[in-house]
Specification:
heterotetramer, A: about 300 residues, alpha/beta, TIM Barrel, eight-stranded parallel beta barrel, four-stranded antiparallel sheet, 16 strands, B: about 280 residues, Elongation Factor Tu (Ef-tu), domain 3, seven-stranded antiparallel sheet, six-stranded mixed sheet, about 15% helix, about 35% strand, binds flavin-adenine dinucleotide, binds flavin mononucleotide, binds FE2/S2 (inorganic) cluster
């Protein structure tokens, strides 16, 4: 059984990726994490300038989940290109660069800067960052804003480099946002980013995060991610979907594929187990091998059973 | 165990001290190379658990070899879900551990007098430190703060006659630290949460005493991935950066930590924007 | 310390309620559940006609959560009034009737029918039911639709009977929906209903629920509920909020109050422990007793700490 | 234990049979009043668990009194997270149990020949039944279907010499049932999941043999609250209703269950609308 797959014209060695921000920029991971064994490593979201991030605490544990508010800390695009990307490439990772900014023009500039950079096989647009155009609503919450940013990025990205728009599961109508992104030139979508959430520390009576609210990730949100994947695949069956949200095992990955994902990315699970990506990949391959049709046969099969 | 790795430990024993339990884990290999101030990261639950994240634990006593290779002791807080889970594991249960992690304390080149300040479970971080200092001819003095310092106190008694513990006699960590700082003390080692160490760090700042602080901060991946453990630290170049406690720490030089600004991203920090509180 | 509270002019014996659909109509619970000991029992959503509900399976377990798609089975309003309500009243329950329909006119008729009925101390409007006006989007997802239904219900409800609008945590902007409901006459809001989710059974390759998608409830969604309560309380600080979403302990209830809830309701937890409501009430009272300001002092205190 | 209540059971023993474990729970009270076909609802995890829901378990052997009051046996599927959790509890662990729940099998007034059909763990539901039937002078014949029927087989051997088990010899539950249905059989008792019992129910429908089926369906609250356990059952008035298995079942008269329409809400069901598949 072959594990490789072509998404939006780009070949990936397999369908299990590291989700944005959850393999860091890679160099931090112990050798067991074996980045080269993953279909792709999606970087944390790279911003135009270096950012220190938000105030502590930046994280709190919740039942089967995690809320975080990091504020996209990182060295900015130049630091990333000088230092982090070469390391990833040297270590055999297939790199998808995630980008985030506060306005469409800055997204465009990031895309422009990534053009022709050796080793960038795709771009993922993080649309969950608040954008100034909207009075600080994340663009993923608004089809118009999202489409505008996708358009700016697509125009500034080399033709052979696919662009994925990363959407939110807690928007009123994810299908209309996905349609707007596709209309604006997105080659695929990543579903879903962390869900807006909050923690309160009952002992102190204060918000658990320094930034008050944050993103909920982990197994808790898997049902929300499956629903998003299901809805978008039903509406846009040919659109490549990279699914994330609580994937921890090969079974989780298979469920995402059955709902309509072409690939899955592992996020929170990597934080507590750096080898989770490789394990998910192996388990998924095992599940596919025990069924007819292999990995490709899993894709969207839950829809077939239902419409049959 | 000298290099960080992921291994399966076996629970050898548990003994309780107040609200804490001392858990002995066997590592299957030589554990005596773990350095004082280092920690392990423990997966505190099984696949059906609602607890997702690992818990960091200071390495206390570490022996080179026991029945099943070397062992380490960790002190688990029974009042916290993670600590309670670890303590509840029966003998010979298997536990997923990553470690040893982090930059250890540095030891003084010449024999000198050291003040070791430990809070609660973090006193465990001082156990191997005291042993190493004494074996280098240093004099060690202890200040143990909190309700549950019995584990640290046991070591303290082995290596020092100058022990002050907090059972009711101390007004504040600040005053207690001051009261122990006479001219003989050249190095202070401290261990505790950032909140606990803040007054200690503040009072020592600029006092001319070397201060090495081993800090407990929220710590998730333990491997420089998540940036969740970052705190503001001034570099030798004078520039403040948000620095990851899990890998550039947990031990910091006290004078470089921005104690007054913990929990914030200071405005003069590299990459800070004004919008950040 | 007094546990009672006045919300929108109505007095409740305490702040811990049974969430809609999770104490059934009451008669099914063992005696230990002690309905009379709760601040209120919110009935399952009552519909104009009897309904059989959706096809099986109606439920699946998820990490720290539950997805369900029942389809509002029940005897309809007449059956409810004849049979279930009198039983609840006889057993000392303070009854809030939840209503659901497919169009504003039917909601109005339900409200009309409940007017002057002995023992109904408040009405909760379930806005998560798809409505025909919208092409089957739940009204809670749309400020205009939600406001229209609230208006119809409020006009047909007796003056002394408060009306609560139950909203969704996975709408793009819950504050604007809450504002619309208040503008239309809602006396308070219930936050949040189950979040749209899905399960796939990897063994069969089919959706885990007969209805494909369903509502995610339980501790998994507590961070989403806290965020919704926080946002609505920040925008509308005087609006009574009944919070639900993963409340299982007194600490959970205290967190909801700190975020801005005046009362909490216990849902999924009642399914596995019929005594959970009473236990939460006792634990919450204990937490409040150990702090200055009692129960009322908890209300919104996380905002005070932050703005101070 | 004669009335449904919530109680704390103590784990007394565990023994394994294939993919299943037989767990003995002590109830602290007399358990002999539990009736055949009833079940308990077990909280299968602690406060930090990601598993929220109780699991229903058939009551197997029940004794009036043991060391700690009466005991019941349940057969837990080790391949399922809930069963695995229960089986992993060490001796003297405490488990939260609600029960006995549900309407039991009714017994024939006069001695007769009964065929008892059990699938997998559900064979446990037949254990007390066989005992009660035999003590009333009935003749019992067993058909045990599935990979793991060892627990039921043990009982079968005590009460009957007519045992057919499925270890490879049986083509389909339908054929197996037919093969056992001679003229002497007046009552069939069956126990299994709705999927397992469907072919049995279908083949017996209208055959003139009384059929009582104890069905496993998704079952969450166990107390008529959540309606999650509903299945379509025809009433004596000819009207089909969605009926709750936890309280109006788990034992149903086979001829009233809409076997062909399981998993759906039939269009002629009370309250069904056309939109529902
Ligand atoms: C270097 C280091 C050494 C430590 N050594 C010990 C020890 O020897 N014994 C002991 O009992 N505890 C120790 N801790 C703290 C321990 O890791 C747990 O965070 C603490 O016991 C609280 O446990 P909890 O189950 O309530 O988890 P929570 O505090 O709820 O934490 C859940 C997760 O978030 C992280 N987290 C969130 N907030 C914090 C915070 N303020 N501090 C630390 N982690 C946080 C945790 O690491 C964990 O991954 C240490 C922490 C660090 C950083
Ligand atoms: C009356 C009755 C008696 C039972 N007796 C036994 C027994 O003696 N031994 C045994 O091992 N199992 C028994 N079961 C099944 C058992 O309760 C579990 O559902 C089953 O073991 C699967 O466990 P799980 O941990 O995978 O839970 P899941 O199947 O994932 O179920 C999680 C929750 O959803 C409910 N649920 C969802 N789907 C189903 C379904 N198809 N069937 C039942 N519940 C479902 C469960 O009750 C539970 O609350 C019985 C079920 C019923 C209804
Ligand atoms: C610590 C952490 C950092 C993250 N950083 C980013 C990021 O920089 N950009 C982004 O688009 N998503 C980021 N995410 C979201 C993840 O990529 C992922 O989409 C989400 O967490 C859901 O998947 P999971 O449940 O597997 O974690 C981050 C998540 C976590 C937990
Ligand atoms: C089995 C079940 C049935 C429910 N029925 C209703 C209902 O009839 N009307 C309604 O507004 N909400 C209903 N809900 C939603 C709950 O009232 C509650 O708002 C939601 O589940 C979140 O709270 P929880 O996490 O405590 O369950 C139901 C939830 C469950 C789990
Ligand atoms: S704990 Fe993740 S970077 Fe330090
Ligand atoms: S299991 Fe809840 S009504 Fe039957």
């Amino acid at each position: 059984m072959t594990e490789d797959v072509v998404l939006a014209g780009q070949r990936f060695a397999n369908r299990v990726f590291a989700a944005a921000g959850c393999a860091g920029t890679g160099r931090e991971l112990p050798a067991q994490a074996n980045l080269a064994g993953l279909g792709a490593v999606i970087t944390r979201s790279i911003t135009p300038e270096a950012r220190a991030g938000l105030a502590a605490p930046r994280i709190a544990e919740t039942p089967s989940g995690l809320i975080n508010a990091l504020g996209l800390p990182g060295p900015g695009i130049e630091g990333f290109l000088a230092d982090e990307l070469p390391w990833l490439v040297d270590h055999g990772a297939a790199v998808i660069v995630s980008i985030a900014a506060e306005q469409a023009a800055d997204y465009a500039r990031l895309a422009q800067r990534l053009r022709q950079v050796e080793g960038v096989i795709a771009v993922e647009i993080n649309l969950s960052n608040p954008v100034t155009e909207s009075g600080r609503l994340p663009a993923a919450m608004d089809a118009g804003l999202a489409g505008g940013i996708v358009h700016a990025v697509r125009r500034n990205t080399a033709a052979g480099t696919p662009v994925f728009a990363k959407l939110s599961g807690d928007t009123t109508d994810i299908v209309s946002v996905a349609r707007a992104c596709v209309g604006a030139g997105a080659d695929g979508v990543s579903l879903i980013n962390a869900v807006r959430g909050m923690g309160i520390d009952a002992a102190t009576g204060k918000p658990a995060l320094g930034a008050w609210t944050g993103g909920l990730s982990g197994p808790a949100i898997k049902p929300i991610a499956l629903r998003a994947v299901w809805e978008v695949h039903a509406a846009l069956p040919d659109l490549p979907i990279i699914a994330s949200g609580g994937v921890r095992t090969g079974t989780d990955a298979a469920e995402m594929m059955m709902a309509g994902a072409s690939a899955v990315s592992v996020g929170t699970a990597l934080l507590s187990d750096p080898t989770a990506g490789i394990r998910v990949r192996e388990e998924l391959a095992g599940i596919a091998a025990r069924r007819e049709g292999g990995l490709q046969g899993l894709l969207g099969c839950a829809h077939q059973e239902v419409t049959a | 165990m000298s290099q960080a790795g992921q291994w399966t430990a076996t629970v050898m024993a548990r003994r309780d001290t107040g609200d804490y339990a001392v858990v002995t884990l066997s590592a299957g290999t030589d554990t005596s190379t773990a350095r004082p101030g280092q920690f392990v990261s423990v997966k505190v639950a099984g696949p059906d658990s609602a607890l997702l994240l690992r818990r960091a634990m200071w390495i206390g006593e570490a022996t080179a070899s026991g029945r099943e290779g070397g062992t380490i002791e960790v002190v688990a807080d029974l009042r916290e879900p993670g600590g309670a889970w670890l303590a509840a594991q029966p003998q010979s249960a298997r536990v997923d551990v990553i470690g040893p992690l982090g930059r250890p304390f540095s030891l003084p080149r010449d024999p000198t007098t050291c003040l070791l300040i430990g809070f609660e479970t973090a006193t465990a971080a001082l156990v191997k430190l005291a042993e190493d200092l004494v074996s280098r001819g240093c004099r060690v003095r202890f200040l143990l703060l909190g309700q549950n310092v019995a584990y640290g106190a046991l070591t303290a008694r082995r290596f020092s006659s100058e022990i002050m513990d907090s059972s009711g006699r101390i007004t504040s960590p600040r005053d207690a630290t001051l009261s122990q700082l006479d001219d003989s003390v050249e190095v202070v080692y401290s261990a505790g949460t950032t909140e606990q160490l803040q007054p200690v760090g503040q009072i020592l700042m600029g006092k001319g005493v070397a201060h090495q602080a081993a800090v407990e901060t929220p710590l998730v991946c333990g491997s420089r991935t998540c940036t969740l453990c970052a705190l503001p630290v001034r570099g030798r170049d004078g520039v403040t950066r948000m620095v990851r406690a899990c890998t550039e720490g947990p031990v910091f030089q006290g004078d470089f930590v921005r104690w007054d600004d913990l929990g914030t991203v200071p405005g003069d920090c590299l990459g800070a924007s004004e919008e950040i509180r």
